[in-house]
């Protein structure tokens, strides 16, 4: 196998590394890790000196010692990517939602809010997905390609799999009530209009995917601020600083 050289722009240690095992220790489960492999040392050193490309980001951090296929970060495939997440402390208890919005692969906005003093993690996830769908519909109407990335299998299934059947049955399901029905109906109404144009994608939580980690921090920030409205983050968008905020 040909020698590879690994650049770590963001990790426990940064620099150029000559083996994957060492590189893996720097980026494994490191929130916001940025790294890429190169065929020659000269290319790696030039890339490290030039800084991480702003139009690329690592979609997930490695969790195994073997080199993952996704170690090379590529340009964003969508004009608009919206990461959404919910948090609740405790569960049930104080809940909030967060979003991280990327345009052409670059972080553009962070949002937080939708505080509920008597919520659950599921309601927070659904609220976040609902607002992501609102943003997605606006983006699609302006001609953008849109991807929503959500780490809640429950929220995704409610909107993309189960809601259609529940609607046909008069919003009923066998075995009992549909929990969180009002927000599911609101989110599904949008999803049913844009289903063929929006890419709704599951992303693993807390494995170092930058957008997911930022949405998570915004969700916890919403819990701490107790702001009921969805608000754009007013602070400086300094990614390392935000990633050091409390995680959900």
UniProtKB/TrEMBL annotation:
Does Ion transport count among this protein's keywords? no
Q: Which family, according to UniProt?
A: Belongs to the RNase H family.
- According to its UniProt record, this protein's enzyme class is hydrolase
**InterPro entries noted in UniProt:** Ribosomal_bL9/RNase_H1_N, RNase_H, RNase_H1_euk, RNase_H1_N, RNase_H1_N_sf, RNaseH-like_sf, RNaseH_domain, RNaseH_sf
> Which is a GO BP term held by this UniProt record?
DNA replication, removal of RNA primer
What is this protein identified as?
Ribonuclease H
Where does the record place the RNase H type-1 domain? 76-224
Q: Give the cofactors, semicolon-separated.
A: Mg(2+)
Q: Which UniProt keywords apply?
A: Endonuclease, Hydrolase, Magnesium, Metal-binding, Nuclease
Domain of life where this protein originates? Bacteria
Give the reactions, separated by semicolons, that this protein catalyses. Answer: Endonucleolytic cleavage to 5'-phosphomonoester
What does this chain do?
Answer: Endonuclease that specifically degrades the RNA of RNA-DNA hybrids.
A GO molecular function term, named singly, is:
nucleic acid binding
Q: How does it assemble?
A: Monomer.
The EC code for this enzyme is: 3.1.26.4
């Amino acid at each position: 196998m040909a020698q590879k050289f690994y650049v770590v722009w963001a990790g426990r240690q940064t620099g150029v590394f000559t083996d994957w095992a060492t590189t893996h220790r720097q980026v494994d489960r490191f929130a916001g890790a940025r790294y890429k492999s190169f065929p020659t040392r000269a290319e790696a050193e030039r890339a490290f000196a030039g800084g991480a490309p702003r139009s690329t980001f690592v979609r997930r951090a490695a969790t195994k010692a073997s080199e993952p296929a996704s170690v090379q970060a590529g340009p964003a495939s969508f004009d608009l990517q919206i990461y959404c997440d919910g948090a609740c402390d405790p569960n049930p208890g104080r809940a909030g939602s967060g979003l991280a919005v990327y345009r052409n692969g670059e972080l553009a906005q962070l949002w937080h809010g939708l505080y509920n003093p008597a919520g659950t993690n599921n309601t927070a996830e659904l609220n976040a997905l609902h607002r992501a769908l609102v943003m997605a519909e606006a983006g699609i109407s302006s001609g953008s390609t849109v991807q929503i990335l959500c780490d809640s299998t429950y929220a995704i299934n409610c909107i993309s799999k189960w809601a259609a059947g529940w609607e046909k049955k008069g919003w009923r399901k066998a075995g009992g009530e549909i929990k969180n029905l009002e927000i599911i109906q609101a989110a599904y109404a949008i999803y049913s209009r844009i289903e063929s144009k929006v890419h709704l994608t599951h992303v693993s939580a807390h494995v170092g995917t930058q957008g997911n980690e930022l949405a998570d921090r915004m969700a916890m920030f919403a819990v701490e601020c107790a702001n009921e409205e969805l608000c754009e983050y007013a602070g400086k968008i300094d990614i390392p600083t935000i990633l050091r905020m409390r995680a959900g």
